[in-house]
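ESCALATION

Customer reports they have been waiting on this structure for their group meeting. Please prioritize. Original submission:
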Amino acid sequence: SNNGLDLIFSAPRSIGCIAANCEHWMLRATDGLPYGPATSICATGQQLWLGTAKGAIQKDSAWHYYNGNRWLPAEQVNDILPLPGKVWIATPAGISELRDVEMTLTKKAAHYDSIIDLRHNRRGLINISKLAVPGDVSTSYSENEDNDGLWTSCYLAAQCFRYAVTGDPDAQQKAIRTFEALERLETVTGIPGYPARSYATAKDKVTASRSPHPKQWHFSPDGKWQWLDDTSSDEITGHMFTLSLFYELVADTTQKLRVKELINRIATHIVDHDYRLIDYDGKPTRWGIWHPDSLNNSPNWMYERGLNSLQLLSFLVTANHFTGNPKFEKAYQTLVQKHGYARNAVQAKMYGPFETSHSDDILNFFPYYGLLRYTHSDPDRNLYIKSLERSWQAVRNDRMPVWNVIASALLGKNCGLSTALEEIRQYPLDLVGWSMDNSHRWDVQVDPLVGRGGSLQAVQPLPTPESNISRWNTNPKSLNAGRKANGEIEETGTYFLFAYWMGRYYNFFTE
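Update from on-call: job pushed to the front of the queue and completed.
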């Protein structure tokens, strides 16, 4: 107790104090108590530590809940010993030490960059690494992933903004290297304007593709590379957004020409093939469809109508801006005037809250960048702003810093920037993915609407340190986050780097 005379105790559903000065108090779930009853209690100064059968709880000016393998070797807490600047928590499987580490956000960014350098660069492609021994980063290895193109694009965006803010040659070198990886994704296929999902050298061991849509490996025309087919809208969305950033913020004269040519080839492929991506077998890929007949008339594409209309208009506007090729302007006008694509774009978030695909949020937000930056006198610009306003309203409660930053930059107003800053401060230094079950918590209000796939979700996002590592494509309200993680993957930190350096570029954050 605080002065040796107060009696702090646990009841089945609360923590109470019989105080020497008669200022008794009680804390329950409605006050923020995450779980109980407490099996051990330790009060020091203004801080209260509670051990429970499922994790440890810290109460200072706020509540903090430490449970799951990121924090503890076992969920049962036997005892707690607070020490200066740290705390020891005893469990049946060993003792965990939690420490407060002070660092600037710039140092935190450097920490994530160093992790990527060590374990996440596979031939220029940046994505998760696998861990042969769960939780042991010394056993990391990397292999191809189905969306290497999209996640590598996100890393390129982060390095472009970092170079624009700092002028650091390290950021410049990494941006150039990553641009060359995106460029290679297109050149290895031998199909002009058709980037692969992933690539590997001819001698690399490649893994079978993820279901439900099987993908095939092919050799490049020169026989030196292998590439993964069935490219989706994810890859094109990532390329078109981040290639424009590389051009504007990093590229020299020669590289600018290469960017223009690559953008021109990708957009030409889509326009010349009736707004579809045509694969190695001459057929459209599963997700590379932006054709008016599909989007406007087929029930199969009802959910993608607004999203894919938005994407295609952005691709065409971006391509027209960089190449001046009249075919892109002509295609844009046809889609807007004849097929209603600008009106479609307003409905990009039509189907929430019951069918919210968080993996689609990237495909939703990235296209706004080109669409709003390269259409200043467009009569439909107000529709694109309306679309972004609606998309922002749909995600504003998710506490995903990157959407807050993009919406603030493009709408020219503060869209939850203090929340974004809070979140990047809280983002864990340890990027190993662990399953985090919060379904037993008392303080979390369960949403009567289930999440996508029928999973239980909370009304508000779970605090970032108390959930699985997110890279903005998972549900932040999921009560059982990272169900399949189990310490077998390590994320890249690109999520932090992108939000932080873009926020710095727009002067939303300082160091």
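Sent to customer with the following note: The first strand starts at residue 7 and ends at 11.
Escalation resolved.
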